[in-house]
């Protein structure tokens, strides 16, 4: 991965958001973090080409969940990698996940996240 890799992180839980930000920093990936799906959609609409990786929780407050963020990512940035993170929605991934995506179940380790990123980002 190059220093030009930028991730959009969508997570409403502050501790998880900080943990993922630390992992991304360790991988030299710049991150832009938001806590709601609608804020993620706004970032994608403003400049989708900026984001190479979308890491999104599935269950969040508001009307747009992580599945919606993944679909919007595909619409605005078809080549972006999507990594879903969830504590309870893994069974829905086959029906709702977008192509070129991975799902990590909470709790996941830093190593699992790094492996997921490295397997999809080239």
Automatic annotation (TrEMBL):
GO biological process, one term: phosphorelay signal transduction system
Family annotation (Pfam families): Response_reg (PF00072)
Every Response regulatory domain range: 6-121
InterPro entries: Bact_response_regulator, CheY-like_superfamily, Sig_transdc_resp-reg_receiver
SUPFAM superfamilies documented for this protein: CheY-like
Lineage: superkingdom: Bacteria
Alphabetically ordered keywords of this record: Phosphoprotein
Residues recorded as bearing 4-aspartylphosphate in the entry: 57
Protein's recorded name: CheY-like chemotaxis protein
Species of the source: Mycoplana azooxidifex
């Amino acid at each position: 991965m190059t220093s030009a890799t930028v991730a959009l992180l969508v997570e409403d839980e502050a501790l998880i958001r900080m943990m993922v930000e630390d992992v991304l920093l360790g991988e030299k990936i710049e991150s832009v973090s938001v806590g709601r799906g609608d804020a993620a959609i706004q970032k994608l609409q403003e400049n989708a080409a900026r984001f190479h990786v979308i890491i999104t929780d599935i269950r969040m407050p508001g009307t747009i969940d992580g599945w919606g963020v993944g679909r919007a990512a595909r619409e605005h940035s078809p080549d972006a990698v999507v990594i879903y993170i969830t504590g309870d929605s893994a069974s829905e991934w086959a029906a709702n996940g977008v192509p070129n995506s991975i799902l990590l179940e909470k709790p996941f380790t830093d190593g699992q996240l790094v492996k997921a990123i490295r397997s999809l980002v080239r």
